[in-house]
């Protein structure tokens, strides 16, 4: 059970692929959010049950009816939010495996009868892999992803990539305004990339914040070849990201989508610890001021605080300079980032 969000569903997909790799005959049911389902809906060998949170309490009733008369060998409770915990009561399972005590929040421990092994300072993806460990699934050297796309989406992405040539995706909008970088700095990075011979495209979801962020960037007249914000399906977006040379983004879903297809990511972080939520394969490319923000707010380093604690403030992202991001861009494009 992992309902949301896009980035976390990408992490969960790696755990699912691990089970399928080693236990191909396992019958898998994935309880998932309505939007997130659109990304992974073609993953083979999985029965998806959509949990539509917009229906409020009725969503739990829907889930109970959908799974009536079924009992599972194991329920992997991979979300600690109270909504997910409450919804899990509609699922009958002999083993109800939840997070360890340190990672349990919002009464999560009350709904589980087993817990994964404790792990200090785990990335979210590693935390999800702990559930496969609890089942006894053999380990893997590296996570792998298989998220098939609709043929029409792949064709669309191929056509756009051919039209663009070498290009970089900037996905500028996080889920909250305070986690976004400054529009004028994104514009400067777009111009810098254009000077390097790269086309730049903006991507993002259909929500108001995504559209407003794109509009603010475009108001600075940067060298943007295409604005796809709010104009793509998740499959089209993933197909386009797969063909990009680079993705630049704050802590948002497309950064983790890029990880699933092997596209390099430069992540921008101030509020959350990138060691926990950063693009899994590109943690060395992250531009982060999180450590400084945390020490300034709490008077101690992040290692001395509970894992996952967030820095608070509406202007923290301003501490990330254009020059820091340009340096990462230049090192990646010249192959000097020691990766």
From TrEMBL:
Coiled coil: none annotated. GO terms for biological process: lipopolysaccharide core region biosynthetic process. InterPro entries: Glyco_trans_9, LPS_LOS_Heptosyltrfase. One of its GO terms (cellular component) is cytosol. Keywords: Glycosyltransferase, Transferase. GO terms for molecular function: ADP-heptose-lipopolysaccharide heptosyltransferase activity. Belongs to the glycosyltransferase 9 family. This is Lipopolysaccharide heptosyltransferase family protein. It comes from Alteromonas aestuariivivens. The lineage of its organism: Bacteria, Pseudomonadati, Pseudomonadota, Gammaproteobacteria, Alteromonadales.
């Amino acid at each position: 059970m992992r309902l949301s969000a896009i980035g976390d569903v990408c992490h969960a997909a790696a755990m699912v692929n691990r089970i399928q790799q080693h236990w191909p005959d396992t019958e898998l049911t994935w309880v998932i959010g309505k939007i997130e389902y659109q990304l992974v809906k073609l993953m083979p060998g999985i029965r998806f049950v959509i949990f539509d949170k917009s229906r409020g309490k009725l969503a739990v009733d829907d889930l109970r009816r959908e799974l009536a008369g079924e009992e599972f060998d194991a329920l992997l409770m991979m979300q600690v939010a109270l909504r997910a915990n409450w919804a899990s009561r509609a699922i009958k399972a002999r083993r109800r495996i939840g997070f360890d005590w340190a990672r349990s929040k919002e009464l999560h421990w009350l709904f589980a009868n087993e817990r994964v092994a404790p792990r200090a300072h785990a990335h979210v993806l590693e935390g999800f892999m702990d559930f496969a460990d609890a089942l006894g699934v053999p380990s893997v050297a590296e996570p792998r992803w298989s998220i098939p796309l609709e043929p029409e989406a792949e064709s669309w992405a191929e056509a756009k990539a051919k039209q663009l040539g070498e290009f970089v995706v900037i996905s500028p909008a996080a889920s909250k305004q305070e986690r976004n970088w400054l529009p004028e700095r994104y514009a400067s990075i777009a111009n810098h990339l254009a000077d390097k011979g790269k086309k730049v495209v903006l991507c993002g979801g259909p929500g108001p914040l995504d559209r407003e962020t794109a509009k603010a960037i475009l108001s600075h007249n940067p060298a943007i070849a295409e604005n796809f914000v709010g104009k793509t399906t998740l499959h089209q977006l993933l197909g386009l990201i797969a063909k990009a040379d680079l993705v630049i983004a704050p802590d948002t879903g497309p950064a983790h989508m890029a990880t699933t297809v092997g596209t390099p990511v430069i992540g921008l972080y101030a509020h959350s610890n990138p060691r926990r939520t950063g693009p899994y394969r590109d943690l060395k490319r992250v531009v982060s001021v999180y450590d400084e923000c945390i020490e300034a707010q709490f008077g101690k380093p992040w290692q001395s605080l509970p894992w996952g604690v967030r820095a608070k403030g509406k202007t923290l992202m301003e501490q990330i300079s254009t020059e820091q991001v340009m340096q990462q861009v230049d090192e990646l494009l010249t192959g000097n980032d020691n990766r």
